[in-house]
Amino acid sequence: MQAPGPVTGADIPGISSAFRYEVAGELQDEYSFTITTGYCDPTSVPPVVMDSDMLFEIGSITKSFTAAAVLKYLETSFTTKVASPTTLDTTIQQAVPYIASDRIPGVATIEQLLNLTAGIADLNLGPIPSLQGYHGAAANDSSPQRNSDEVGPQPYSSTKHFWLQNQVYAGLALPKPLGAWNYSSTAYVVLGQYLQFACNNVNIKAAYRHQIWDPLHFEHTYLGGFEPVPQSELAIGWSQDGYPSTGASRVAFFTGYWSAGAIISRIDEVARFAQAFWNPDITILTPYFYKKMLNFVSFPNEYETLGISVPGVSWNGYGLGTKRVIVDLGWNKKVQLIGHDGSSGSCASTAYYLADRKASFAFTFNRALFRETGHTLCNLQKEITRTLMAYDKPNG
What we know:
Helix content: 25-40%
Oligomer: single chain
Order of helices and strands: EEEEEHHHEEHHHEEEEHHEHEEEEEHH
Mean pLDDT: 76
Strand content: 15-25%
């Protein structure tokens, strides 16, 4: 639903948000609501008003979906008592031997891939030379059968071209020290290949759908590049920093999509996932894997490294597909958020669980317009958290 009251001026940043509260330890939609305001695409005539029914590229929040799918698969591996079950300690060499190379350490474990201590460099530092994206409808991918070294179609490609392993990993820098934390979308691409390989080369979108989307009754969540996405429902198509760039070729960043960042969804379904994954009373995980998910690798405030920090907000830990953010409320109280952020060419998004309120929230906004206001994703995280915790603020 759109926020009540008039909205004037096409320069108002478009924001879509959703909130969910736990009641009696159940996942219930009646205790949820959405709020939208502003414009998602100010360049159209007339400008397009943001609406909660729109679809958004959620970027690296996809990593949390991938982590959930991997952990659910590991649970199944245990419960079905297969001869050689895969565990968090299983190495890349054991799980997907054809991937191991001088760029992808075979001794790194699935747990190290999930918590980003596998030492794998991040290919997002630059595009793959000679490989360009295409405009047009997403590939239908009607035949999921492909060679083991083919790891997914180009994003929004109108062709049936698939990436080849040697094309992808040839651009990587040499590994970082094993065990040291290093943000790497490439690690989650490897996890996507593992998940696909472990599930007998099933289309990776089928793994998401079987493990997460269908059990949570998602009807408006897609894997970009693997299935048609209703273009009319997209808040804003592929763009450069929030402004449409349909006249230019999209340079394909391999790790900016697929199992690291390709999911497209509605904000209410992102908030439902946040509640179902990170709320311990409702989580889709077993207690063992939920506890492992929250075994955080600690480091200094990464938001400062990224240049988007604000006073009182610190991202200082990473678990299994899960960020730990500490928010200083300003009245001698700090609270912890667990969840993930994501960004695409057009949008920046976030999805978190606040244990102090048993509340989950997600929001997304047009990157360009919001940046022009002088605010950042951290500002919104802080203000939403302060609002949810307002009843704890001392009088005066």
